[in-house]
Sequence to fold (392 residues):
Amino acid sequence: MQRDVLVVYGTRPEAIKLAPVVRALRDDPGLRPVVAVTGQHREMLDQVNGLFGIEPDVDLDLMRHGASVSAITRAVLESLEQVLEERRPEAVVVQGDTTSAFAASYAAFLAGCRVVHVEAGLRTGDLRSPFPEEANRRLTSVLADLHLAPTPAARDNLLAEGVDPRTVLVTGNTVIDALHWVVEQPVPFSDPALARLDDARDLVLVTTHRRESWGGPMRQAMEGLREVAEAHPELDLVLPMHRNPVVRDAVEQTLGSLPNVVLTEPLAYAEFAHVMRRARLVVTDSGGVQEEAPGLAKPVLVLRDTTERPEGVHAGVVRLVGTDRARVVEEVERLLRDPAAYAAMAQAVNPYGDGQAAPRCVGALRALLGLGPMPDPFDAGAQQQSLAAGAR
Ligand code: UD1
Ligand code: UDP
Fold:
């Protein structure tokens, strides 16, 4: 008899990071994934599910333009209660730190279900930054029965908070599984402006969306990038815009009218990965992009003051630059003008995973349900060494 595992997600990054887990669950003869999407992100979520061939079993369709975080939380709690009552899954899987993830884990806890947290243990140490994600991830840890930590540092954060070590497995980040898969996919460019880009020109890829940067900080950072684009007509700056209207307004007002700036709709994941591979460097406040770009040997400048992903910073391939206009200009200029500084950051390291995180997650879930032993953890040290050996 197959056991139902309810996988709940709502936003683009959760969809990308859970797609390999859903696929690995499908391959397991003893488990059956039941996919419930909250629809917190409508178009950006559907885009990812379509690419990975995942058709949700349940669609809560909750996105309302401009809905507050409280309203999203309420809506997820209310509508999942009924789903959990009807489906009675053996476990509920959530990912990361969005409001969908936290609210789903709380609904599962209230329904007496086991909670499995993928990408557990990330921390900045500042409850209000990123907002509301640091709170979401801490709250989810309190509720979880199984903590799938992407890296040893994430595991250590959990252990320092008193989490039972028997309930924690270091899996690697499932985003690396997704990235391995997606770079093999064909890339039809949806935006003619991207298809027209000259491969011989340098490309700077930019993304931004973080709530704590809305208003002044995001505008400052975008003005810095405007200055860079104006000073460097020989390069193209590509910015796929998040669907959030607050973000789009800030981006369009500062960068909308420059000949060497291409503002696009959110790109399908395969297309985005392709542009990332083409890029000389990446400027972002995204969590997922911070994890992916180092694997592709792209220097990453992070438009934030803190990160819950210190591994890339320690490896020297990611720099936290904040949102101050002058600092953003200075850091991008340094990488464009100083070949030694660029070479130091453009190294293929992958502290975030080896592409086998999803099978480890499913193995740990089987162990939770008494169906097998806990798998061996992801060995970040071995991963670093083998990549270094490959590079020599
Ligand atoms: C959310 C998550 C954040 C995550 C980010 C990834 C919360 C509170 N925030 O932020 O942790 O890093 O997603 O991108 O959970 N919209 C659309 N179509 C879409 C997606 C968004 O129209 O496909 C618009 C809607 O008007 C929506 C708004 O964007 O109301 C904001 O979306 P929301 O999910 O509230 O927050 P994000 O800022 O996207
Ligand atoms: N991404 C994408 N298309 C885009 C921009 C980003 O597919 O136009 C992917 C990116 O490769 C990464 C994920 O979306 O895997 C990151 O999502 P986002 O930045 O929205 O959220 P975060 O990771 O910051 O929570």
In short: The chain has a mean pLDDT of 95.
